[in-house]
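hey so i finally got around to running the thing on that chain from the lab meeting. sorry it took forever, my laptop kept dying and i had to restart like 3 times. anyway pasting the input first so we r on the same page abt which one it is
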Amino acid sequence: MGTLDNNAYFHSFKEDISGIELPSRFTFPFCYEPHPLAIIAAQQLQAYLEIQNEWTHNFGLEENNDGHAIGKMFGILVVRDQQHRLGYLAAVSGKLAGSNKHSYFVPPIFDMLEKDGFFLNEEVHLNALNRKIELLENSAELAQTKSNLNRLKDQWDTALDLLKTKLRNQKKERKETRTRLRPILSDEAYETLMEDMRNQSLKDKQELQRYQYDMHLALESENLKLQRLLSDILAMKEERKTRSGNLQRQLFEQYNFLNAEGQQKNVIAIFQDFDQSTPPAGSGECAAPKLLQYAYSHNLTPIALAEFWWGCSPASEIRRHKNYYPACRKKCEPILGYMLQGLTVDPNPMQQETTLQTELPQIYEDEDIIVFNKPAEFLSVPGIYVKDSVYTRVLKRYPNAGPIIIHRLDMSTSGLLVVAKNKVAHQFIQDQFIQHTITKEYIALLDGVIEQECGLIDLPLRVDLDDRPRQMVCYTYGKPAQTKWERIAVENGKTRVRFYPLTGRTHQLRMHAVHPEGLNTPILGDDLYGRKANRLHLHAAFIKFIHPGSRQEISFQIPSDF
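ok and heres what got predicted. didnt touch it at all, straight out
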């Protein structure tokens, strides 16, 4: 580790970098290719992680770990000091090995783990409240009270059912008696009978009311006891909620961020200005804000940024060891948007119109449908910023017909896309998608060798709320997602497979390929869950459905170009 002057966290490059041209603009942190200098800096940091003995953290890289492994996101920031010397800063997202203080990594914006600080002191109170709540919720008194109340309710309910049955039978008997005696009784005798029956009916109602009143009295004492116990728990939970909210606000007040123009703003104001939201917990604890804050505070000029994952992947989302990743959206987009003001930053590639000269091959058309071979990196429908798409191209050709997109392919996926030319055709084919009667096949090239020959992947998916549009496996809130697959061939360390999606979730094939409980191998070129290549090697190769006009089965097939 090399250092310069008073910047203890400024690390020198260990190899000659004089021949590497500096970037003309700073890294756009949410979609980027790491600059060569950033890659060299990341490799030096990774070499340090492999040999350091200053701290101990279970990243899950050992063969026999204890099952409590936690991978971490690390970041590097290539910087230039006031003497125009190049070096880099390093940071880790969140805390590491139970601490925020490490000799190699820049410090946090605010160290909430500072001994005798307000955060740890208040955490003591919150933890004590949590223990009290847990004790009360699991207390023998609460359990016994609930049990007694349920037992009494069952007893009274059983007796109530018997009473209601008896009263119903008596009512039925009175009705049968009236019907049987009416023909043979005089009017006066029948009226006397009716009066007796009305009195008996009134007595029955009074008996039921008395029973329900007695039941209420019998349950009231246990109910009151239960409510007292529950109100104590509720009061503690309200106190916990208030104290947690106050602690979070006090914590956010400590997070003040600089930008390249020398201005400073609190994180609460940053999120308010961005979308009038409240900062989520952990805002400002990611690597990128830490790096920029330290650079601005120590007169270092940011040159390039990169973040990579180190260790095993979390169970639900996908992170692969040593892969580079963009900054997260929910926590970092507002903060970095402010911190980068004053820097010349690379444009957002997702907002660039890059397909205007791209041909959109058409393979079939009739009065009801058009079938295209959509190129990779071409939108099915217009985006917020990029308007060129299959839909807009067809709309220009048929401005009065109004084409209707029946299904979509991800922007990065190539292959067969069917467009309806009228509402009747759209509804007819869409119903087949809903009923899962359409047959679809995809060809993919996976970035690794798959030993199995075929299988079924069943992993429910939902969007990662902290980092859209990434998806995650979630057995609690995820939507069902199933994919059949078969291996076609192994080619130069890659595996060609055929996917048969039985459902149509966002990023389903990508996630089912890369997840450890799926094929544990990303699709080649998957820049969200794997590593970027010249393209995403995923192609919609075959589709079969009932034609809306002829009502005959029709199919289309087109090979991949990879």
